[in-house]
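I can't quite decide. Please look over this sequence plus structure tokens:

:::
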Amino acid sequence: MHLAMNPSAGEADTARLVSEPMDAGQGDVVKFNVWVRPEGAPDRQPAVMVEALTGGEWRRIDSAEALLFRSMAYFRVETGGAWEAVMPEGRVAAAQAALYHNWIPRGRSCIAPSGTEKVRLVLESPLRGAAGSGWSADDFLCEIVSLRRYANENADRPRLRDVVLFGADTLRQQALGCYGAAENHTPNVDQIAREGTLYGEVTTAAPWTRPSFASIFTSLYPAQHKAELHLSALPQSVTTLAEVLKDQGYFTIGFARTLFDGFVGPGTGFDQGFDAYLYSDDTEEVSEMVRKFLDLNGDALRELRGGGIVLFRHLYEPHAAFINHNPDLVRNEGGLLGTVDITFDLLFNRLIPNDPALANEADVRYVREVYNGEAAYMDRRVGEALLRLRHLGLYEKVIIALFSDHGESLNEKPGAWVHPTPYETCVRVPLILRIPGITEPGAIVSQGLVSNLDIMPTLLAALGIPAPEGLEGRNLLDPALPPPTFSFSEDRKLGNLTVRDAAMKMTVRNASVARRNDDESIRDWVLFREDSPSVYELYDLAVDPWELRDLSGERPEELQRLKAALFAHCVRMGIATREAVDAASPAHFSPEHMVLLRQMLDKGATETPALSHVGETVPLSPEAMEDIKSQGYVF
């Protein structure tokens, strides 16, 4: 097919190429895919749009920006002078278009509006460019994901318990009323806590988004699933929570604020196991997609007799930049007078330098107040979903998990801002589980170490589904399983490692270094190198929750005990070999603690071997690269 662009054509200013219509109904998720290739010298790419037939008229319902779903992606190889469509073995990213003979993937998921009868894909381009310029288009592929059809097909199956996963981004415990915030600004999250169980001593497996959500979805540490860096993808070899639930007969749908190849984007593997995974880099658009899906599928949800739904809702609002949603009530009286929103420029150039000449304590308080306002804004999004569940008659029995990938440091420890930092404001995260009939309403578990690795095995246990082999988390509902002695957090990107027990915590900074100074740098663990730049810190969380006093020089026994636990963890995770640890240990341990280390290493060697996957990388699009850098992230 060829989309011709003829600059001499005066009767129209655009050219259109339209696919054959497909049957669809309101609330269906429409997933289109097309490959286009320039011919000649067109001055811009064509717009790729989805149109729906409603009330006898075709109207645009969404625009398409990037390849969305890997399962229907094609590229071409030349065989005997002819082009042949071949299913790729790995991921296809928009940034890889040049690899496929200039064929560019385009696609998008969208929700069919009320009254939809059919849908179609339209390519449209202005008639500008050199004579003879145009676009070839091929492989119009479409998948209609219909909850109505799912309900009909599963009417005779057992009814499964519905599950809603609220995955907040950058939400720290201190912002929630149920965790002790003085302001009552999170009533909906607090209501979930009153009806479920709240966990206090929860450590994230990683203090930034991609590896942490990957750990939540797989119950594996970052060193195992390998989604550790900006260019890392969640390998297709892992088994995700969504995949397990889909295999058990659930309808699985996700909504995320992300770019295609963003932190939790489908281009980096986070759509694995979802029947549909809708995304946008606009938080309001994501909220609208959730509302639209629930409202347009209301009848199907009310009448669901067999099967069940799993809905993942990514909540991005607490993430910087911080928007002041109540400027008349929350005002800055500090040195940044007139400031309303906390932009990245303010964060990185005025606040993070921690220079009183740039910003004072009143400014810091203002940032915290605005951040809490973002948490309140997020809470309203939670409330919107809960209200709809009540209206649909699903709320009473639905299982709800609310969790965060990491927290946010706001200068509680002077100089520690945003994330990822190895400090408690960032690595300690909220976790609330509401499982009617199983969790005790209003219960608070304040003793015993918990990890966000525990979410997957706990939910599977609550649903009566066997967990895959090799999960690192534990079932929090099993009283016979004692809490672990230690919990760990890994950040290969910035080189931070943490280990803690019931009271003490050790952090290691500069545990990894970049091979080179560029955007695609791989970082190597150097913890056990003779010239390692690693720096150790030790804190007594029982008396110093803000980690203001480093005890590494005062309590060497505690430092060596936690070092032994961390070194053993590194060997088990494959971060280091036992030979490297043995060679480095005399410089770190007394003879007494060498014995302890060897005992821990031997114990780890007798346990079930830790799963380890081969890492995958996806070249980032310029848009994703710019988005990452604009948020202050470094490679």
About this structure: The chain has 15 helices and 31 strands.
